[in-house]
Amino acid sequence: MIGTLYLIPNTLGTPNETETDPLGGVIPSDVQTLTARLDYFIAENAKTTRAFLKQVAVKHPLATPLQEIRIAELNVNTETAALPALLAPLLAGQDGGLISEAGVPAVADPGANLVRLAHANGIRVKPLIGPSSLLLAVMASGLNGQSFAFNGYLPTDAAQRAKRIKVLEERSRKENQTQLFIETPYRNTAMLEALVANCHPATLICAATNLTLASESVKTQSTAQWKKEMASGKTPDLHKQPTVFLLLAQ
Asked: What is the pLDDT of residues 46-60, one digit of tens each?
């Protein structure tokens, strides 16, 4: 009998919860219960996954001692040829969990190819409920939630990034579609500055930061409003803080 691949949500940062229930406000109890019974995980980073499992264990004792749980790593450097070995335990009948560093697996995450391979091998894939920074950002932005597109990372080169922003803004204008993208946290300020420098004054820009955390901040306003605030020295501190950027051309 073939095992099941569970797609396990992670927190979007260090939860600000009581020590008696560190994940209670973010990860549903039944998801934690299921996670606690697994003894095989595929994760971006074994160390941080063990830290997550320690948080799960506070309210949901692990069925297998933490040191005996097997965690195989899957990240952006994993070769395609290495994927079948990650699924071998499931094909042998063992259930396994795919877990991201933050949020839900296989969305803005290197796990998508593994999920596709699981389907190709007849492995049941079961997504579990948890926080998605992208959907939370759309919900809180006030921008078009009927039509939106996630564009991953924009180019790091300033000229190429500016060109890409203009392309996305034009697509947004033509299709009335919200455009989402992310940036490496230490380049967040540069991203916001690029948006303000290259978007039409009426285009709405949203910066959704530290979602689900105590320091959460979501702000939507026009390019002109952002520019005015930034000129007066009121640029929000986004440095090294996970942020989703959204725009909707008017």
From this structure: 999 999 999 999 999
